[in-house]
Amino acid sequence: MLPANLKPEQFSGYPPEARKLAVEYLGVFQRLPLSFLPNLLREVIDYDYRFPAERKTLEKELGNLSSLPAPELNQWFREFAAIQLSPKLEQFDWINSPSQFVEQLSSHLWTTHQVDAFRKAATEYADRLYAAVQPDPPALPRLGIAVIGQGVDEHEEPLFRKLRPHGAYFTAIQPDNGLQHLLDVVATRAKSTPLPYAHWYIDGAQEIPHSRAITCVSYKNLEPARAALLARIQAETTKSGGGPEALRTVMSQMRPGDLGFDESGDRVLDFFQVKLLTEGSGTQIFSTSFAQWAAREALRRAQPLTLLVRFAPRQRQKPMSELLSPSHEPEELDPMGSLVDADMAAYYNWINQQRLPGSEKSLFLAWFENHREAVAISPVMPRGTVSSSAATLPELLSWMA
Amino acid sequence: MSGSRQLAQQLAFTRREFLRNATGVALGSALLRPCAFARAATPSSRRKVVVITFGGGARDQETFAPEGQENIPHLVRELIPQSAFFTQVVNRGILGHYVATASLATGVYETINNFASLPPESPTIFEYFRKDFRRPASDAWVVAPSNGFNRIGESSHRGFGPGSGARVILPKYLLSAATSGSTDYGHLLRDSYETPLSAPELGGSPFELEQMERILKLSVADFKSHARTLSSPDELSVYIVRQLMHQLAPSLLWVTMHDIDIAHAGAYSLYIDGIRRTDRLCAELWKAIQSEPEYAGKTNLFILPDFGRDSDDDPGGNGFQHHRTGDVLSRTTWLMALGPGVREGVVFDHAVETIDFVPTLGALMGFSPSFSPGKPISELL
Q1: Cα-Cα-Cα-Cα dihedral of A327, B177, B141, B292, to 10°?
Q2: Closest among A401, A345, A394 to A179, alpha carbons compared
């Protein structure tokens, strides 16, 4: 089956809005190479459960492709068309299982030494698309906040080494009631710019009370879903004939109901959380990995205006078989290791925020929870500087604007 | 010059400058022949070679870059000043640990499924070595971390294959059998990190406890007792390596480390711990080589990663966590050579490939890796 032979009825298995979108752009799909199209269909098939920012991005991409005259479209996809695929891939049900196709495509590209060519084609496509479809600027400058070090009294190695060159390092922050102050700032921004999924709070443990206008994801709240997932993984891995690839396929097909989510919940957010657990590596077992990956995916997909991530101690390392076994024993925690994890993760949060439109005006604050150290990055903050000025967190945030 | 090649050269330049500043090593060139093994006092027939793959892949910023050097004090202070160091070793193959290690061991970019229990398709260094020198099975060994590596000792190639390569020891498999999965030893039984949710299958015939007692002269009780004093799977591997060196003194010994690969779980502190441990274990093995009479003065040690990890700058990856993007940082690594005939403290920053490694060892030791398209590294000849 090649894209040129696509017919509208072949999208009957798609959710309603995704099906409508696919049929609308069928003419474009028919002209795209097979090495590219399933990647696009991965986005289309989940359209009903995508965040508004993702929907808009996808609609713009499809609109742009449909506007390209045939010679130009061919030029855009010349390098993708040169990728050699196997008959097995061509026969795969890539319409209904685009993610699994992409997994197999990836393996094929590595095996046939075409991964560099594909990478080059993908990079060039992204550059062309960016030039043709300029993203909308954010409604207000983005604000990222990382709170690290919960449960740590003292540390030996310096913090924020990766972030400090990009902003000002403060050593005399007044920590009293700091987390609440920061959540209040998120709530204020959510109230003043009330866009859906635009203001987030991610907690690596149990979230603290917060405004209902904020989208919240927490490691603790997902405990039942994580336990259900680990039980399912155990069941799958004890089956004979299964392997890592078979397990990935099973996990990629999971839906919120499979992990015990309430059917009446927020479907978009529930799908997002399922993907955090089924696509992220380490998110099922380490709260620091969960918080970092959740922040990355929230930034990449929802493109929030405000994102507060509070890291918490993860469990100590144990054999993977034990980590993956559902257990009722209290977790033994590793606060010091988690501080190091979260310090690096805060840096990744900033990098990922800077990949979004409006990065030249973005603000980023990293704070060592309940301590005096923080790093503030903004267009007005002098880079690579150190300040011993006493300040509260709200004062510091006001200086960043 | 392509962008990726420029980046690779820049990476090599950075490593070279760091090494020059930190250790005072000299810059090598084609005019400065560092060697050579050919003139070394040990005849090639008596020479021994130990290879350590610096397991799981580590990036420059956590190792050779200025901010990373605190993680590799033993490499920087003890080993690099005694070594010839190649700053730009490029892996153009598949970046999965089993298949990449198989590529290193065959000198061919293998394309076998990284997660299947399959032998390499091209002849391995162990098969070339044993066939050309008519060496017994006891002279070539692999110590490897994961069940998935049990087939790496010999290929499926016609003319080689079963019985003609290296024996493979999986210390975790042995410990698991010895302890029946007792939780007291759980920290030494960590599984493959590349597929943390599903341990690889065990293929072929594993080296069993009975063989450990008979061949390594190591009782199950002593093995368990010593294992209690260790903190990681790689420490267990090094313990077995030392037993092998002491009891059998194989001429060709290949050790695959993997503690660093815990990075896949996304915990940066555990990744750094793995690097620091591997750094220490490399130095311990070099000391062991010098203290074992069968090895001292006639053994070359080669240390190299199978590949690197993704850069922070590639939006397709997630930084240190994986090696999935195929970017320059994940493809470009280094090689350290120590021992007789090696000109110490010299750095070479021109590009070589991972598939050049087996032809280089072939040229040094005198066997013919006829199916490898790689080229011997001239500065080591």
Answers
A1: 90
A2: A394
Task: Chain B: give the shortest CA distance to residue A186, in Å.
Answer: 26
Q: Are residues A17 and A155 in the same domain?
A: no
Q: Is A241 on the interface with B (CB under 8 A)?
A: no
Q: Where do the structural domains in chain B lie, given as residue ranges? A: 3-369
Q: Nearest CA to CA, how far is A5 from chain B (Å)?
A: 31
Reduced to 3 states (helix: H, G, I; strand: E, B; else coil), residue A190 is helix
Judging contacts by C-beta atoms under 8 Å, the chain B residues touching residue A119 are: 325-326
pLDDT tens profile B71-108: 999 999 999 999 999 999 999 999 999 999 999 999 99
pLDDT averaged per 10 residues in sequence order, chain A, 401 residues: 96 97 98 96 96 96 97 96 96 94 88 88 93 93 98 92 98 97 98 98 97 97 94 80 74 92 93 96 95 98 98 84 64 94 98 97 98 98 97 96 92
Q: How many domains does chain A have?
A: 2
Closest by Cβ to B189, choosing from A314, A319, A339: A319
Continuous segment of H or E residues that includes residue A38 = helix A37-45
Rounded Cα distance, A248 and A326, in Å: 19
Chain B residue with minimal CA distance to A111?
A: B111
**Looking at the structure, do residues A188 and A288 belong to the same domain, yes or no?**
yes
Q: Which of helix, strand or coil describes residue B318? A: coil
The verdict on residue A286 lying in a domain is yes
Determine the CATH number of domain B3-369.
3.40.720.10
Query: Cβ contact (<8 Å) for A319 and B197?
Result: no
Per-residue pLDDT band for B31 (boundaries 50, 70, 90) equals very low
On whether residue A232 sits in a domain, the answer given is no
- Taking every pair of C-alpha atoms in chain A, what is the biggest distance, in angstroms? 68
Query: Strand B299-304 relative to strand B332-338: parallel, antiparallel, unpaired?
Result: antiparallel
Both A296 and A349 in one domain: the answer is yes
Q: Percentage of chain B with pLDDT > 70?
A: 85
Residues A182 and A325 in one domain: yes
Set of chain A residues whose Cβ sits within 8 Å of the Cβ of B320: 344
Amino acid B14: pLDDT: 75
Which residues on adjacent β-strands are paired with residue B335? B86
pTM for the structure as a whole = 0.92
Residue A304: other Cβ atoms inside 10 A = 28
Residue among B201, B319, B322 whose CB faces A348 most closely: B319
Residues in B closer than 8 angstroms to A283, CB to CB, are: 266
Element (H, E) at B255: strand B252-256
Give the pairing type, strands A173-174 and A391-392.
parallel
User: Any chain B CB within 8 A of the CB of A321?
Assistant: yes
Show which of residues 187-206 on chain A sit within 8 Å of chain B, judged by CB atoms. Answer: none
- Of A132, A152, A178, the residue at which a domain comes to its end is A132
**Residues B301, A353: Cα–Cα separation, whole Å:** 44
Indicate if A314 and A350 belong to the same structural domain: yes
Domain boundary among A112, A132, A152: A132
Domain span at residue A189 reads 143-222+264-400
Q: How far apart are the first and last CA of chain B?
A: 29
If asked whether residues A102 and A154 sit together in one domain, one would say: no
**ipTM exceeding the 0.90 mark:** yes
Cβ–Cβ gap A336/B270 under 8 Å? no
Residue B195 contacts A, CB cutoff 8 Å: yes
Does A155 share its domain with A13? no
CA distance B165 to chain A (A): 25
> What is the per-residue pLDDT across B274-313, written as a single tens digit (0 to 9) for each?
999 999 999 999 999 999 999 999 999 999 999 999 999 9
Tell which of A245, A316, A320 to mutate to test the B interface (max B CBs under 10 Å): A320
The answer on A95 and A156 residing in a single domain is no
